[in-house]
Structure formats: structure tokens, C-alpha cells
Design goal:
The protein has 196 residues and is α+β, with helices and mostly antiparallel strands. It contains 5 helices and 11 strands. This is Thymidylate synthase.
């Protein structure tokens, strides 16, 4: 899955109606709704939208016939394998009726073109771990993190026997990290999950 790195816009005219799409990253439902409100055009006849954040997805036809705008926009998001994304498509009516099929193609196509032009990046699912280790092992563990790009580590406290670290790393590298810590500490470090 991917998300967008920044907001993107795309406009086109279809049978004298003007369509303008805005797409952008949204990490929560609240962010998505703020994006939609902030990018809806007040003078447009319709501001149809959709967003997807994990298992949460919503869409609106904003007065267009049911199923002709919001769902095609959502399908454009899903078709591009995107998540954590909001899209709003504004329409200014040009005097020619498009029909249900024409509206679906216009809204879905405008959204898809906007998303296709947008810069995207892979979504990296991270996990948080705690590591309790001896003082002597801390430097070697920190040094070993060089082979784990995108990993964050911070000291959270001290124990009578050593230090407690909090580590945030890509979930698909968790087993490799635990194996490295076990090898460095000769099985003495204790690794636990913080996000359970």
C-alpha cells in the first residue's frame, strides 16, 4: 500500500462541465474531513469526496445521483492501492446532462488522473519494542541498528543492571532485530512489545 507525500490537484472539462480534483495525505478521519472542507470549492455545484484510512472509508455524492460520484472516487483510491488518502472532486455544471454512467466516469476518472499525477510513497508499518539490556550491550545494539533503515531508538530509563531502550522499527524487520539483540547480549536482553 501507498500514501501520498503531498497534496495534488487535477482539473478537466467534460461536456462543458468543469471538474477539479484535490487529493492529499490524511493520517486520521479528522485530518481527512479537514482536507475535504479545506479543498471544497464554495462556488461549485457539487463537492463530492471519498477517503480511506485503514479499514475506515467514507464517501459522499453531495447531491449527485446516488452512487455516481463518491463511490467512483473511492474506487480510484483503491485502484491505485492507496491508503491514508482523501480526495474531493468539485463540479461546475456546464449545461449538458452526463447521465449516471457519464457522471461515474467523470468523477472516477478525474480522481484517478489526480491520484496518478500525485507523488506517492510506500506505507511502512512499524512496531514499538522495549529492550532491557546491560550497559555494555547498549552501544553494540545501537551500532547494529545501522542495518535497519528507518529505525528510531531512544533511552527511556535505567535499571540497576543496565538501560531500557524504546525502539520503533519496520514491522517486517522485527524478527531480525530481536535475533540481533539476542546475539549481541548472549540471550540476556529482554525484548517486549510496546504496542500490544
Amino acid at each position: 500500500m501507498f500514501t501520498l507525500t503531498k497534496a495534488e490537484q487535477f482539473g478537466q472539462e467534460i461536456r462543458k462541465s468543469r471538474f477539479l480534483a484535490w487529493a492529499g495525505p490524511a493520517g486520521s478521519e479528522e485530518e481527512a474531513r479537514r482536507f475535504i472542507v479545506g479543498h471544497s470549492s464554495q462556488d461549485a455545484g457539487h463537492n463530492c469526496w471519498a477517503f480511506r484510512i485503514g479499514d475506515i472509508y467514507r464517501f459522499s455524492d453531495d447531491g449527485e445521483p446516488g452512487g455516481t460520484a463518491g463511490r467512483p472516487i473511492l474506487q480510484a483510491i483503491e485502484g491505485r492501492e492507496l491508503d491514508r488518502v482523501a480526495v474531493v472532486v468539485s463540479r461546475w455544471f456546464g449545461g449538458i446532462l452526463l447521465g449516471a454512467g457519464g457522471l461515474m466516469r467523470a468523477y472516477g476518472g478525474t480522481a484517478a488522473s489526480c491520484l496518478g499525477a500525485a507523488e506517492r510513497e510506500p506505507i511502512v508499518v512499524c512496531t514499538a519494542l522495549s529492550v532491557a539490556c546491560a550497559f555494555a550491550d547498549e552501544a553494540r545494539i545501537r551500532s547494529g541498528l545501522g542495518s535497519f533503515p528507518g529505525t528510531l531508538i531512544e533511552t527511556r530509563g535505567f535499571t540497576p543492571d543496565g538501560v531500557e531502550l524504546h525502539v520503533m522499527l519496520p514491522r517486517d524487520r522485527m524478527d531480525d532485530f530481536i535475533r540481533m539483540v539476542t546475539d549481541i547480549s548472549r540471550g540476556q536482553a529482554v525484548v517486549g512489545h510496546l504496542d500490544d
